[in-house]
Specification:
It is a single chain. With about 500 residues, the chain is mainly alpha-helical. Helix content is about 65%, strand content about 0%. The chain is built from 17 helices and two strands. A two-stranded antiparallel ribbon has the order 1-2. The longest helix has about 40 residues. It is globular. The two termini are about 30 Å apart.
Amino acid sequence: MPAPSPSPLLRRSPVSGLARRTMAFPEVLAQSVAAVAPSAVMVTVPAVVHPVAGAWSALVFALVAVLMTGVGAAVNVFAGRMVGVSGLYGFTVRGLGPGPGVVAGAAMAIGYGGAACVGVLGAGQFGLAALDDGARLLGSPPGPLGDPGPGLSAVAAVLAAVGVVVLLVRGVRASARAVLVTETVAITVVLVVLVVVAASDLSISAGLTTALAPGQWGVALLLATMAFVGFESSTTLASESRQPMVTVPRAVRWTPLVAASLYVVASLLFGADLAAGGTSDRLAWSLAGGDGAPALELLLNLGITASWVACALGSVTALARIVFTMAREGLLPPVLGRVSAASGTPSAAIVLVGAHLAVVPAVLLLVGFSVPALFVLVMTMSAFGYLLGYVLVCLAAPALLGRLEERTRLGAVVPRVVAGVLVVIVLWGAATGGAWAVGGFVAYGLVVGAALALWRRRARRRGLALGLYDEPTRADVLRPDAPGARRSPGAPGAHRSPGTRP
């Protein structure tokens, strides 16, 4: 009996046009680091959590890190077996089917979109604060930069969004390298400033310390979890990574652990200083009480501005690739699946995401939201999205392993326990966050329901096959050093469903 013939290789990859197999591990790691933005989070989220958790803040971040490590293990079940470009959306389709997959896609879109909005909002506010610090060091009197109104804050956010789009359209490798260097410098700056402040007479005034009332533990846990979200975003660059089934799982595994160590240190230093500090109406911190305060404040604000830009870059990168994948699958208009021939980036999807990124925070600021209130609102809504995506991928991992006959008892129990804890955090956060959190939770459900309805309608008409992922091409196998193995030009080709459930 003749042996079955192998499946023919594709002439074009389903994700043709992207700069396939070009990114080294440091550049892939930069994506996860950028989306998490640890240096920016170190001076914002602890300020929110500390009034609620007090001396327990460091322990809260450590426990959440353990939870995120469990999520990362579930993500790596897929990242080590397939080269996706849509992250948890594609993973959930492969594990649980297209319906839950579309819900995961909508959830992660809300998560990445909210994080990107927080990024441009933070970049605008800290950037204005840095300009004000520089002007004061030069002897200028206090001006509007130190206390920006809604109009100036909206303009700053729009400018930050435009800068993010321009950088990403030019190419993901260049932006990834810049992000990795910038974030490393920013982390160093933040740690040095926090140590100096804790060891001196300087004090901190932070607007976010009034964002939550004592007792709102649910929202505090939700926001502490938000400090880690985005660590999985490197999965959206798998097709563009060298040795993706090695480099991507490594980035997913280490990012939450490194972030946790930074947050614990920041919580301890911030908690020690807060008793001597105060509150303000600005998002950016103010330092006072010593001769070196203005210079340190300028240094801090410059570093955090760069970190928030990095956060927006990482979040838009991931969201644009989800939009790109849905367009290639037929779920969204085909124009969003186009790729720039010059840079190998999904430029149409990036521009669409960037347009929303510029409009949403600007409109909310102009209708009356204060910057700290808007920051916490968007960050909480983003956390809702991320956590639902994490819950679904934790349920999808044991389902996939079961079909592959690779599931162990530990592999079946741990992801489901992690998923249950995440559900509790989401519901607790919605219940204790006040009327705005409940309303936002309802609005979030409507968005997910609309996405599911869109899929059902389009799938019935076109017979869509979701879960697109990268596959080897003839050029990859026959001429791995050829240009086609790195960047396959042309329109998308039809993709084949793998052995997992479509």
